[in-house]
Amino acid sequence: MKPKYDRFWLAVALLVFRIGLTKAAGQCTPVSASIYGMYLKGHAFKTVKTTFNGECDLKCMEDPKCQSYNVFIGQNLCELNLRTKEARPEDFIPQLHRYYMKRGNDRAPLGSIPELPAESCGEIKASEGDNMENKEYWIYSDANAGNAILAHCKDAWQKLNTDPVCYGARNDRFGPFRIPKTGLVRTMKLVHKSGSLRCNPIDPDSYWGCTFFRYNNSLLTIITNEKGEAILPSTADMEEAFPTGYSCTEKHFYHLDGIDHKTPELVFRNLSNPLSLSRGQELRIWYGQDWKNCSEDGNNGTICVDVFALYI
Ligand SMILES: [Ca+2]
Predict the structure, then answer these.
(1) What is the CA(204)–ligand 1 centre distance, in A?
(2) Are 47 and 72 in contact (CB under 8 A)?
(3) Which of 38, 255, 296, 312 pairs with 23 at a CA distance of 20 to 30 A?
(4) Percent of the chain with pLDDT over 70
(5) Dihedral of CA 112/116/117/121: which sign?
């Protein structure tokens, strides 16, 4: 028997084996079917000349990176893709004489192996849906440079810090952290880990604000750049400070729907203009009074948080 036919029978055997596996794996995972008249544009990492039906499926299974493939009907040609149509719906395009096939149950989830970094946690969420885990994935730290890092994703959110970021309420005790990934950010959130702050010795403590009545349950947690300029929320999104007669005359507090003194997560509003961040850049978390050096003498406490960003 010629080698060519050996390969043919090997392919048949593997396909039968795969069908068997799919059945044995149970009813939860739908079997992917080929989609005629469509293909995924711009994500091929290899073009394969095929000599028999099913060879493209075999080639895709041989490469751990392969997520899906496009077959060029009648041309003995196919493309192996680094993405699925779920990850990049905008690139799934009608085209006559082609068909698209997603890899079966043996597909590595996007970002789960170093050879297959994702653009963002959001792209992994789109690709894997509810099967995405709360864990570390491979993500490009800068898509143009092509470097990948391990980043903790919780759904579409990327955790930015490794150790918790801690800060106080006076004496310029801001909490610094470094940006691990270059890109555009839609918003951020802070997740409470430990501690709390007080804006005077009498009123109760708070994670995010000041419980003194004049603040009317507003929030005083501000993310700034290295120059101390407010990023989240922007100064425009803060409320006018108190009238004269009170020492804090500059803007340094705001309200967010659904977020109170002890809400576990402070999720900022989406920015109208996404924020451009660079890998290695330092950002700082401040308590508003400490940031503006006003009425901070009676403050105390330390709070530690995790910081997450929503990259576009
Ligand atoms: Ca200060």
Answers:
(1) 21
(2) no
(3) 38
(4) 89
(5) negative
